[in-house]
């Protein structure tokens, strides 16, 4: 099972050690058949491993000396690349958290400024309304007539 093909592990009991049974001389074809099945499974496993390594090689940013990589060197490069990507991800997370914190502080400042502007705006509107009421009583009779005329027409 560890090699990528199914095999049955013999059940071992704590009793006496099991010895391999010698095959009867009348079944040499069975031995060849078992070996050929094993060879075929091993061939498939190696082909699958080769395909996976080729896919890994295509996904890896390889240098100028990429003509011939051993499996071990390819796996080491992949490990280093993954570590580099993880470090980049951590840096990006820290930056994102800093930016989120900065955004929250700016939001709070904006709300405070809006609150101050809102209070100032209310004061200004109240002052304007007081000024306009004072002005309206000071209007001349001719202004009052114009207003009445405009309303009627």
From TrEMBL:
Q: Which cellular compartments is it found in? A: Nucleus
Q: Which residues lie in Basic and acidic residues bias regions? A: 120-129
Q: Ranges for the BHLH domain?
A: 33-85
The task this protein performs is described as: Transcriptional repressor. Binds with MAX to form a sequence-specific DNA-binding protein complex which recognizes the core sequence 5'-CAC[GA]TG-3'. Antagonizes MYC transcriptional activity by competing for MAX and suppresses MYC dependent cell transformation.
Kindly give the Gene3D superfamilies that the UniProt entry links to this protein.
Answer: Helix-loop-helix DNA-binding domain (4.10.280.10)
This one is known as Max dimerization protein 3
Which InterPro entries does this UniProt record tie to the protein? bHLH_dom, HLH_DNA-bd_sf
Q: Which SUPFAM superfamilies match?
A: HLH, helix-loop-helix DNA-binding domain
Q: Cite a single Pfam family from the UniProt record.
A: HLH
Q: Which organism is it from?
A: Balaenoptera physalus
The biased composition feature labelled Low complexity covers: 102-116
| Molecular functions (GO terms) | DNA-binding transcription factor activity, RNA polymerase II-specific; protein dimerization activity; RNA polymerase II cis-regulatory region sequence-specific DNA binding
